[in-house]
Amino acid sequence: MWMGDRYDRMPDVIGLAEVENKEVLVKLLKYTILRKYDYKIIHYDSGDRRGIDVALLYRESVMSPVCITLKTPHYGGKKLSTRDILHSRMRLPDGRNIDFIVNHHPSKFGGESVSEGRRKAAMTALKELCDSIGNVNIVAMGDFNDSPEGAAFQLIDNFLVNEGMDLHRKGEGTIRYEGRWELIDMFLTGPGVDAEMEICRMPFHIVRERKHPGEKPFRTYSGPKYIGGISDHFPIVLKIFY
Questions:
Q1: Residue 226: beta bridge partners?
Q2: What value does the mean pLDDT take over residues 7-16?
Q3: pLDDT at 111 over 90
Q4: Cα 39 to the chain's mean position, in Å?
Q5: What is the C-alpha to C-alpha distance for residues 129 and 108, in angstroms, rounded to an integer?
Q6: Contact partners, residue 50, CB within 8 Å, separation at least 6
Q7: Cα(99)–Cα(194) distance, rounded to whole angstroms?
Q8: Structure confidence by residue, pLDDT tens digits, 179-205
Q9: 230: closest CA among 239, 240, 242, 220?
Q10: pTM score, two decimals?
Q11: Which letter does DSSP use for residue 7 in this model?
């Protein structure tokens, strides 16, 4: 309810990464405070080796799906074993469409330079998807596993607007690594979208660092140990102005 108190309403759309399966989402909507709202689920199993997917929740009273597609990144002539990109075209009551795209791009596992090609492949797939949509009202969101100056983001320069750029320039971030904030969770918008991005620093989602001065998100696991937090990422919010 923190979100509802802060923004005077619950989100119309929620993009999710690190989703284990649809049953988790069903339980989320059935056994938490979200049961009071009319959220519906859009989720498909992806080819990720760990079985991790992305998903979209939307309020049925606010919008309805027109079409749903998946885009699989390719790398080296083969399908990349990562999360599919989830595209949902949603129709508003006034007849306008907004294309929501949920991403979770490959991590830097194995080293930044070694993994850079995989992130470029995912960003190329996102750009190809946007090219095919034919709509200026695009909202791409998710964990891009790279900061805004990363090489992969050059692929969408002058094509999508990175709503997190100003926050990044101010030194703000969604994760904290080795005592430094990094912004890897972002919204990228099309030319038809007037919006503003915020990072949600909820008081109950913040703990003190032990190794470095400052604070960090209260994560769920520390290695294999369950510590009861929410996530090692702060959530982000996009306010769209109509």
A1: 221
A2: 96
A3: no
A4: 18
A5: 23
A6: none
A7: 14
A8: 999 999 999 999 999 999 999 999 999
A9: 220
A10: 0.95
A11: H
